[in-house]
Amino acid sequence: MEQVAIVGAGIGGLTLALALRQRGVDAVVYEQASSLHEIGAAVALSANATRLLAELGVGDALDEVSTEPTELIFRSWSDGRRISSFPVKEEQWYRTTCGAPYYGVHRKELQRILGQAWGEDAVRLGHRLVGLDRTVDGVRLTWADGTSDTADLVVGADGVRSTVRQWMTGGDDTRFSGTSGFRGIVPVDLLPSLPDPQAIQFWVGPGAHLLHYAIGRDGGHVNFLAVVEGPDRWRQGSVWRDDCAHDEAMAHFQGWHPAVTEMVGAVTHTERWGLFVVQSLRHWSRGHVVLIGDAAHGMLPHQGQGANQTIEDAVVLADLLVTPGTDSVQQRLAEYEHRRKPRARRVQRLSWVTNRILHVEDGPEASARNAMLQDVARDIRWIHDFDARRQMPSSLMKRV
Ligand SMILES: Cc1cc2nc3c(=O)[nH]c(=O)nc-3n(C[C@H](O)[C@H](O)[C@H](O)COP(=O)(O)OP(=O)(O)OC[C@H]3O[C@@H](n4cnc5c(N)ncnc54)[C@H](O)[C@@H]3O)c2cc1C
Fold first, then answer.
1. What is the pLDDT of residues 95-144, one digit of tens each?
2. Would you say residue 147 lies in a domain?
């Protein structure tokens, strides 16, 4: 593999760059922003990704700035009663069962750790891709300032609104989910009504849910995402944030348990996030251009898997590209899609279903949902204990 250009220095782009370097290939990473900064609040990283990040050499750095949730708990919206709960850090249950840790981490920290591992100077900042062309020499990338570069292979790691994907499919494949979220980070001290502040918890109720988990070295803050049904139409088109009044967020959670209203109320909400997905694509590559992460399969965040699936994509793609053999680049890209697409789609679909299940009205449907939640840890094991190294042709990565 000769010159690889990665468009986007987010979680996927930087992970891919590190995985390629580990296998002896130095890619060029382009990023539209003028500095590497975090987008959003925090992210939950599960074993299917943390085992891969550890092998890329960033496990200890992550461990230092992350919180491992004590438990996974589902609670009722009104009285806060436990619907179901499962150990995570307690008795090392999650590490033992899934083979790697579960972390709540501030995005700023994750971005910093990946950026430093790759070398922030090695990212070509201020490069916003506006066009791609096939040339006799490879693929030409045109930047917003009119300059261009060429590469043998272009990887679109440019997120849910991917320019690379638009070039591939010729259309806008994002779809508004009909749901939106309010987000924030709150010091635990401001949440006197919150039981089990170090757990990852879903508070589920009619038309809405709130997910939170502790982040930081000492778990002193809680990151939350409060998801509500609506609006029916997203008036901002493809821009995923819209102005809102603080009262709007609070109105959705009137009558909820004080732990929820304290959390939502602790942040001055000036914007809500539209939750978008990427429609199922026929292919993830065209010629010598390929997609990873949200660009390929942007999903609802209700399984906490967007970033984790992105990390899996990045490492599997890197491995397939560098494995010695006679396969052409296109055959390797087809193989990557073959290995990754079914799993990413399954998670994507499950995230849709989860949204519906979490938001049912009290009554028989909620009782059925609550019965189902008794087995949730077993039901989602296939996501968490998955080892993407099994999808890799090389044995370069040794088992932890
Ligand atoms: C509310 C919310 C909560 C979430 N929580 C979780 C969670 O707990 N766990 C989890 O696993 N996932 C979570 N996700 C999903 C996760 O954030 C994404 O799946 C992940 O960030 C995707 O990584 P990526 O590298 O594909 O894209 P991104 O992280 O979006 O990075 C794309 C990069 O490309 C750059 N870029 C874009 N366009 C261009 C261009 N034209 N030229 C050059 N550069 C460009 C961007 O500036 C950016 O740096 C959540 C998402 C949301 C919305």
1. 999 999 999 999 999 999 999 999 988 999 999 999 999 999 899 999 99
2. yes
The answer to whether residue 365 sits within a structural domain is no
**Predicted pLDDT of residue 397:** 46
Q: How far apart are CA 292 and CA 285, in angstroms?
A: 9
The per-residue pLDDT of the chain, averaged, comes to 94
Which DSSP helix (H) or strand (E) runs through 367?
A: helix 364-373
Q: Is the dihedral of CA 58, 60, 65, 71 positive or negative?
A: positive
Active-site residue flag, 94: no
Q: Which domain holds residue 115?
A: 4-66+102-175+278-356+383-391
- Residue 154 CA to ligand 1 centre (angstroms): 18
Q: Which candidate in 94, 102, 103, 213 is catalytic? A: 213
| CATH code at position 106 | 3.50.50.60
Overall domain count for the chain: 1
Ligand 1 pocket (Cβ < 6 Å) reads 7-13, 30-33, 40, 43-44, 127-129, 157-159, 163, 181, 183, 225, 273, 293-295, 301, 304-308, 310
Per cent of the chain over pLDDT 90 is 88
**Exposure of 398 in the CB half-sphere (CA atoms within 13 A):** 2
Residue 288 lies in a domain: yes
Determine the residue of 18, 158, 303 to mutate for testing ligand 1's pocket, defined as the one with the most ligand atoms within 8 A of the Cβ atom.
Answer: 158
Mean pLDDT of 344-364: 97
Q: If you measure from the C-alpha of residue 294 to the centroid of ligand 1, how many angstroms do you get, rounded to a whole number?
A: 6
Adjacency order of strands within the sheet including 71-76: 82-87, 71-76, 200-205, 208-215, 221-229, 174-187, 271-278, 241-243
Residue nearest to atom 50 of ligand 1 (CA): 301
